[in-house]
Amino acid sequence: MKVPLGFSMSGVHAGIKQDKTREDISLIKSESTCTAAGVYTQNKVVAAPVILDRQRTPAADIRGIVINSGNANACTGEQGEQDAEEMARLAAAEFGANPEQVLVLSTGIIGEPMPMPTIAAGIKTVASQLGTDEAQVVAAARGLMTTDTSHKIAVREIPLTTGEGRVMGFAKGAAMIGPNMATMLGVILTDVALSPDEAQQLLCDAVNDSFNCISVEGHMSTNDTVLLLSSNQHQPTDSERATLHEAIHDACIELARAIPNDGEGATHLIQVDVSGCRTRNEAHQIARTIADSALVKTAVTGADPNWGRIVSAAGYAKVDFDPSEVCLKLNGTMLYEAGNPVAFDAESVSASIRENRNTHIDFRLQQGDAAVTFWTCDLTTEYVHLNADYHT
Amino acid sequence: MKVPLGFSMSGVHAGIKQDKTREDISLIKSESTCTAAGVYTQNKVVAAPVILDRQRTPAADIRGIVINSGNANACTGEQGEQDAEEMARLAAAEFGANPEQVLVLSTGIIGEPMPMPTIAAGIKTVASQLGTDEAQVVAAARGLMTTDTSHKIAVREIPLTTGEGRVMGFAKGAAMIGPNMATMLGVILTDVALSPDEAQQLLCDAVNDSFNCISVEGHMSTNDTVLLLSSNQHQPTDSERATLHEAIHDACIELARAIPNDGEGATHLIQVDVSGCRTRNEAHQIARTIADSALVKTAVTGADPNWGRIVSAAGYAKVDFDPSEVCLKLNGTMLYEAGNPVAFDAESVSASIRENRNTHIDFRLQQGDAAVTFWTCDLTTEYVHLNADYHT
Question: Among the CATH numbers 3.10.20.340, 3.40.50.300, 3.30.70.100, 3.40.50.2300, which is that of A269-388?
């Protein structure tokens, strides 16, 4: 596969997860020092690897990332922080690097001590299997997964005067199950040069339009992290730099959308477009409130074009607006215009929801030009089963 | 029944609802002018009766309330406002009062025109049946109901030097179904004298500790309203006035708790106590975030003592705290203390959830003395069925 130059990777089953067919340790190695940036959960309760990575990014001398799934190393106190450092140290030893040059990602059960002997053995095994073949890339992507039903990889190519620039991203979903305080994790790799500051700014911007615009059930994890690494193999021109930014932005959106699409029990991916707002923040606040409404989600589950639930959700988003300026379309059909319900063919709109995986909510105000696109999934009995029928 | 002196009431099936066994028009009449106060939804999209009542309260000359269920008169534009005024006019004509002396409450389907001939006939019928017998009180309480499984009445008696003061309250639930943007409605009646200003302040305080501390799924309706009426039959002493305040406060809490307890598909009433905060607002913010977490709700559904979901929900409540100050008890058992998981008997805590209707979450910080008590219900597959398996 077209792995960005300078990176190699793989994933193995070390034994953190019980199911032997599921990878639980991944390693991404950079041949030489690389640029790294990170964006992290805003939760007040953060996992040990988040504490460690926050201190280590942005940076110019990172050599790789060690990832485990099956244990989040969250709410594990002082020991957890030592374990995260030990994971970095073990990976660094394999890379011939300093411990401070390795970043750590964990996801899985919270409040349980890390099974360090298992993890140490896994790091040693995976380090002997690094490469750029498709099987190795997929194994690395699978090592991030918890309750995701499929791995998530996005790839972009950028024509450069110096050759072909590459972007490759991985993500895992925000689906949560049992005691697994699951988490959104993302890793973006590129071989096009980025300074630490540029990487940090680019990642913040891209995350703002992608991973910060999704939710499954509105719960924010202790571990959410997106990392961007560049091996700096290609020096882009200014116009190529713009193309790179766009490619990373695009890859983040592709990965972000894949998360609610794979939400637990989801039968629909719901795109919520909010426009005509004074500020992007206000658009985001309205979109998120609509997306997080259990009543909106269950209406989509039931293929019910229930504009009342959508309009009233927007009404409690803590954004000031006059109801008479609201226009709402569902799958392209106007349901509510300038504050008044519109006569529409409910059966055909219902059919358009029922027969498509994607549902599109288009909510407009008339206050300005700010807009946002947000993605979520519907709420099904399967979600409740997955999250209720589990006992610690 | 011990209806506060000066009030009479009843409820009838007028035909707004299809089911003929369900009352859909109620009338509460005050023999003479009475004090009235109101607290209303903060939604930007408000129903016509909310617009009308907001203008008419607080007041000293109210003669009664006309209530319908089955149609919320929300998102109905200019016609809706005229219909709300017409309802007040029709009730006032029966009372021999001015139209401005009547308040209006509506709940039910939104975006549909009000069936005014049906409502007019219903008001005429119910006006001929007013009284203070238990059957009349229950019929009045049932006239507020939408998807509630039972009517909700709270009664308090206050010994006064001038006789027995009475408080009687009604409420309907925040359960939502189909296109019915259902609503929290509350009515509190007393015969102990209150000035309009005192009534308004008292109602705001009582609602703050009761109806503002509950949620079913976090969706705020276009119609939420609580009204307080006093017929001013007894002049209380200062100490009796304090007792009255306490009684109204208590009655509001009893009614408020009854709402999530009767939440759609609920199998548990969850009480969330948050204490040790700097301000009541911060405690409320944490409590509400825990209560609205689908992961916390489904953990209770599944009798899973999942402290990770609770602690991490608190962590994204946008309140600043240090995780090392968090203590969490579930049904009296400490699960998480000073930022560390505690060893506990998971099976016995699980059994205590499974075997009791009430679940108690006790979350403490160490920043101050502010505290709040919040109530919600769990999230079950039945909730999803009720809200998804309906087609407009």
Answer: 3.10.20.340
